[in-house]
Specification:
12 strands, homodimer, about 350 residues, six-stranded parallel sheet, alpha/beta
Chain lengths: ~350, ~350
C-alpha cells in the first residue's frame, strides 16, 4: 500500500451513479466539499450534462458525465468510489465498472470493506488501487507518547455518529491555515482519508493496535502547531468503541463536542436520549484524564450542525441558545466558518 | 473454525518446553489451574520425569515428559501451545514440533497470532487446528441487547494488565457452581478461551465489531443466572481500549475491580501511578452508565491478587486493610476462594 497514495495534483472522477441527490453519496459529497485535488468530473448517468454544484448544492463546480470514457476524456486519473452502499460492500453492479476503470488506466480509491487490489495484480506504471479500509501494516501498541508533545491536539467528539465531526475538523483546519497556523488533520475514516490522502481507517484496525494506530498518525504530525483528530462514533452509542483509542492515541489538550441542533435522541436508536451536553463533555474529559493518569483536555467549544435549518438567522439563534445553555463557545463551522472554534482553541 | 473446538473430555498435552518454571508458561499454568479437560501430561524436556504439581506449585498432578511421542503414549489427543513467546508469534524452533504433532494425529490449540490451520490443510478425521487469536466469522455491530437481560452480568475490570481478572472470574464461577448457581464464564483472551472451550479473542477483533463480539458471547449465555465476563486491559493503560467494548457488549449490572496488593504503578510503565481504587471504580461505573444512557453497574467488590505474599495471615491483613480503606468487600479469590466475592455479587 503506497501511503499516502493520493497525490493532491491528480484529477479525480467521483463515481456517484444515481447518488448525487442521495445521502449514500456521502463520500462524493465530502470530496466535493473538501478535497484539495482537482475534480475532473462526477459520474452519474441520471444527472449527466448538469453541474455538480447545481445538483448537490455544494459550492464547487464539476461536470457530471455518464461514462468512465467521458471521465477519462476530461483528464481524470483517479476514480473514487463515492457511494457508501448498505453494509459497506461492493454492489454486484460495480464490478464491471471497476474492471473497466482499471482497463482505462484509472487508479482507484476504495473506501469499502472489499479489497480490490488483489483482483487486479497487474497495473500500468503509476496506476494503483488504494484499499483504504484495511489495517495498516507495521502497527505497534501505543505508549502514550503524544502526551509529551508541546502542540495543541484536538479530538472532535460527538453526541452521535454521523453528526459532522469530520467537517468540523476540516473547517477548523481551513480557518487555521487562512491565519497562517500550521494545522494538521488526522483522518480516521474513509472519507477523511480520501480527502487528506493519508490516515487510518480506525474501524478496520484490530483492538490491540487501535490506540497505536492513532498515536502513529498523531506523531507523524508532531511538528504541527494544531493537530485536529477526526472523531468517530459516540460514547452514548452502544456499538461504538472508537472514543477510547482516539483519546489514548491523541492524548488531547482540547475537545470539540459535535452535535446537531435540536437532536434529542440517537438518529438510528431513538430509544437512546442524548444526555445534557455539558455532562457528556465532562464524561469525555473524565475518560481522557482517567483520574489524573493522563492530561485532562478542556472542552473548548461546541460545533453545532444546523444543516437542516433553512434560515441563517434561525441557525444563528440555535447557536446562541446552545451557547447560553452550556456556557461554551458555539458555532456551525460549515455554515458560519470555524473562526469561533479556532478562537476558542487558541485560548489557554 | 469449529466452535467450541475443544471437547472437555479430550485429554490435553501442554507444550511448555523450558517454561514450567517461567512466567512465559502462563497459558499452561492457566490450564493446569482451571481446565475442565484431563491433563495427560506437560511437555518440558528440562523437567521430564517430575510432576507438574511439584514444579509449578499448582495443585494439579500431571506427569512431565520430554517428547510428543511420550505425550501420545499417555493418551493426549490435543496439544496446547502453553507458552506465550515475546510478540505472540510462533518461535522458529516450534515449527518442527507443530509439524510432528500434526503427523502424530494430535489436534492443536493455538493462542498465538500466527495461523497454523492454513499450513496443514489435510488432517485426519476428528483432528483439528484451532487458531483462536482470529476474529470470529459473522460478527455484527452491537445493539445494546444485553441491557434487557434479567440476569446478573459482571465485568472484571482492573488497575493494570495481567493482574488476575481471568482467575477472579473463574474462581467466582467455581464458587457459584459449588452453590448450585448457573454461572457462565465469557472468555475474552486466549487462555480463558482454551479453558472454556469457546469465547472471543478480543484483541484480534476489528474495532467496528468489538462491542458486537462481546454482546454475542453474553447473549449466548443469556440463560445463565450469573454471567462472568473476563476483563482485558485497564482504563489507566495508554495502549488499552478493551474496556469500552466489554462494558457496551456486556451492559454489566456489577463490576469486580481486580488489583494486586501493594502495587502503586503500572507494572510495565512505572511512570503511571494507579489512582485511588475507589476513584477508579467510579470512573468505570461512570463510563458504563455514560450519563444515564445505559444501566449503571455497581462495583460489588475488589479481587485482590496476593500471590507475591508468602504468608496467609499477611495476605489476609492486606485484604482487610484494603477493605477498610475502600469500604468495598475484598478477598483474594485464588488464595481464599471466591466466597466473599460471590456473596457481594448476590446482594441487591
Amino acid at each position: 500500500v503506497p501511503e499516502p497514495a493520493l497525490d493532491p495534483a491528480q484529477p479525480l472522477a467521483l463515481y456517484m451513479e444515481a447518488s448525487t441527490r442521495h445521502p449514500s453519496g456521502k463520500m462524493g459529497f465530502g470530496l466535493l466539499r473538501y478535497s484539495p485535488n482537482p475534480i475532473a468530473c462526477v459520474i452519474d448517468s441520471t444527472a449527466a450534462g448538469r453541474d455538480a454544484r447545481d445538483v448537490t448544492g455544494i459550492p464547487r463546480s464539476a461536470p457530471i458525465v455518464a461514462t468512465l470514457a467521458a471521465a477519462r476524456a476530461l483528464g481524470a486519473e483517479v476514480l473514487v468510489l463515492g457511494i457508501a452502499p448498505p453494509g459497506g460492500r461492493v454492489p454486484d453492479a460495480w464490478w464491471a465498472v471497476i474492471d473497466e476503470a482499471v482497463r482505462l488506466g484509472l487508479s482507484i480509491v476504495n473506501g469499502l470493506h472489499d479489497r480490490l487490489a488483489p483482483r487486479h495484480p497487474s497495473l500500468r506504471a503509476g496506476q494503483w488501487i488504494w484499499d483504504m479500509r484495511v489495517e495498516p501494516e507495521g502497527l505497534t501498541i501505543a505508549t502514550g507518547a503524544a502526551a509529551r508533545l508541546p502542540n495543541r491536539r484536538v479530538v472532535f467528539v460527538g453526541s452521535d455518529m454521523a453528526i459532522g465531526k469530520m467537517s468540523a475538523a476540516l473547517e477548523v483546519q481551513r480557518a487555521a491555515r487562512a491565519r497562517g497556523i500550521d494545522a494538521a488533520f488526522v483522518a480516521t475514516g474513509q472519507i477523511g482519508i480520501a480527502i487528506a490522502g493519508r490516515g487510518v481507517a480506525l474501524d478496520a484496525v484490530r483492538l490491540d493496535y487501535a490506540c497505536g494506530a492513532i498515536e502513529r498518525e498523531v506523531m507523524a504530525h508532531s511538528g504541527a502547531e494544531l493537530v485536529l483528530v477526526e472523531g468517530q462514533g459516540s460514547l452514548v452509542h452502544p456499538a461504538s468503541t472508537a472514543t477510547l483509542p482516539l483519546l489514548r492515541g491523541a492524548m488531547p489538550t482540547h475537545l470539540v463536542l459535535c452535535h446537531r441542533a435540536g437532536q434529542k435522541t440517537l438518529a438510528r436508536i431513538p430509544e437512546i436520549a442524548i444526555p445534557p451536553l455539558v455532562a457528556l463533555a465532562g464524561l469525555y474529559e473524565d475518560l481522557a484524564a482517567s483520574c489524573g493518569t493522563f492530561p485532562r483536555p478542556r472542552t473548548a467549544a461546541i460545533a453545532l450542525n444546523t444543516f437542516h435549518i433553512a434560515d441563517d438567522a434561525q441557525a444563528e439563534r440555535a447557536v446562541r441558545t446552545l451557547q447560553d445553555e452550556t456556557g461554551l463557545p458555539c458555532c456551525d463551522p460549515v455554515r458560519q466558518g470555524a473562526g469561533r472554534l479556532l478562537e476558542a482553541l487558541s485560548r489557554a
